[in-house]
């Protein structure tokens, strides 16, 4: 992504934390320094060169700028603009992988922003950093901090991974994925763009609709009936929607897995997330309930074989589309680890990060307490905003259909599109 899309996408991760009440900036500066001392990737640089190499630095103080926006006419809006600029501004990992910042919205309301290069963090790691920074700041202000020590640092895991991806184990993983994906074709949604993108419009479309609490509860119950989690259930509904949109009976989409099969990395920060291709075959008579069961099996098998980095698949394992294997990506955000900032105002803070340019079409389901949010991010050059809005609405309607009548065949969905 950095090589091919680096100029189109700031490959940044962000950790955001709102503090309300008394604030001690010197204590926060010490907490950030303690955070970098605790996690090696936050002090790892990658010198330029043909081969990517890591250089781990000794712990050292990290400047934490404090920007006061309290005098602005709308301090919250001003803070949001700064956060959006931060995530859109690249982090030079050859110099330092972490860029902290604190915004003062008023004397008793501060927003802590950690912007990190994607080389050194992922969604699971962001959750760890949010947890750790809270605890370390509390410790600096006199409260006890009870944090488990990371068993492995990222470099230890990288050596372990290198050893695993050789010999018989590499052959086993490669055999599984080539067998699973042989003959698969990328999902290619019909081009929906009817007119050129007007000047001044953002290059990406962002559409969000919500699944109500009653339907969400029914979806969780459906997952329990299938002895699985929300991820296979919400993915199965996405497959059903793709089937109604394209008429394709062989569907392959990308997703991101935590890739933390070793217990030693439970508290380790780093870029572990692994892209996997999830292939599902359907027939006109397949019901939503049967598709959920199939998807559960597919996801469980993929989890057992997620150790193989996607780029080590033999070339042309999957064909079609534009040649990229991540044109259509599905995620259940927050499913890897509970995020302390995944609610209310803090969830709104993530808008800038979610709108990063990463994939041609990214569909994200976000748990929000008792409800779900369905979010579509796609290229405005390829898709029309009206189509994008209808696509997400149809997904929400299909979720309701799955809860009320999971035995409906997909053929009926295709014959009578959900509205």
From TrEMBL:
<dbReference type="InterPro" id="IPR023213">
    <property type="entry name" value="CAT-like_dom_sf"/>
</dbReference>
<dbReference type="GO" id="GO:0009239">
    <property type="term" value="P:enterobactin biosynthetic process"/>
</dbReference>
<dbReference type="GO" id="GO:0008610">
    <property type="term" value="P:lipid biosynthetic process"/>
</dbReference>
<dbReference type="GO" id="GO:0009366">
    <property type="term" value="C:enterobactin synthetase complex"/>
</dbReference>
<feature type="domain" description="Condensation">
    <location>
        <begin position="6"/>
        <end position="414"/>
    </location>
</feature>
<dbReference type="GO" id="GO:0031177">
    <property type="term" value="F:phosphopantetheine binding"/>
</dbReference>
<protein>
    <submittedName>
        <fullName>Condensation protein</fullName>
    </submittedName>
</protein>
<dbReference type="InterPro" id="IPR001242">
    <property type="entry name" value="Condensation_dom"/>
</dbReference>
<dbReference type="GO" id="GO:0047527">
    <property type="term" value="F:2,3-dihydroxybenzoate-serine ligase activity"/>
</dbReference>
<dbReference type="GO" id="GO:0005829">
    <property type="term" value="C:cytosol"/>
</dbReference>
<dbReference type="Pfam" id="PF00668">
    <property type="entry name" value="Condensation"/>
</dbReference>
<dbReference type="GO" id="GO:0043041">
    <property type="term" value="P:amino acid activation for nonribosomal peptide biosynthetic process"/>
</dbReference>
